[in-house]
Amino acid sequence: MVDPRGMRFTAAVTTVVLAVVLVTGSGWLLLAQTAVFVIGASAGVRNAPYALVFRRLLRPRLGPPSDLEDAAPPRFAQLVGAVFGAVGTAGFLSGLWALGLAATALAFVAAFLNAAFEFCLGCQMYVFFRSATVKGARG
Questions:
Q1: Which residues in the chain land under pLDDT 70?
Q2: Closest CA to 113 of 105, 29, 55
């Protein structure tokens, strides 16, 4: 279970990082952001770097959350971010700027939606795929 405020904070930081990547075309900065996504997907969103900053610096000042969320959907969203980040990094570092920009822009939109409107696109994908898997198993 995770604090949804922390998920929004990490989305806001990610939005800023991805905006800088879009402006500068820095494949190396996108590679660093992709590493953040990979940590969140593999070690869990509570252990991702931006979540650690939130937990240590901001959450103590905010008090306890009114509710907690399941960590599985945001973890899946981190995996989706890692895929787009990897594609974008490959694009920028190989000279395929259009690919780098497109993949980064898609990740930016998803992060922005979460930060600004608390709409986690990757989480919605998780719910969709999970329900499709359950329906498929039933036959």
A1: 136-139
A2: 105
Nearest to 97 by CA among 27, 5, 18, 40: 27
The model's pTM is: 0.91
How many angstroms separate the CA atoms of 59 and 76, rounded?
A: 23
Contact indicator for 11, 48 with CB cutoff of 8 Å = no
Q: Could you give the CA distance from residue 86 to residue 34 in angstroms, rounded to a whole number?
A: 6
Chain position carrying tokens 């279970």: 1
What are the residue ranges spanned by the domains of the chain?
A: 4-138
Pure H helices in the chain? 4-24, 27-43, 49-53, 59-62, 72-94, 97-117, 121-138
User: Could you give the CA distance from residue 134 to residue 127 in angstroms, rounded to a whole number?
Assistant: 11
Check: CB of residue 88 under 8 Å from CB of residue 100. Answer: yes
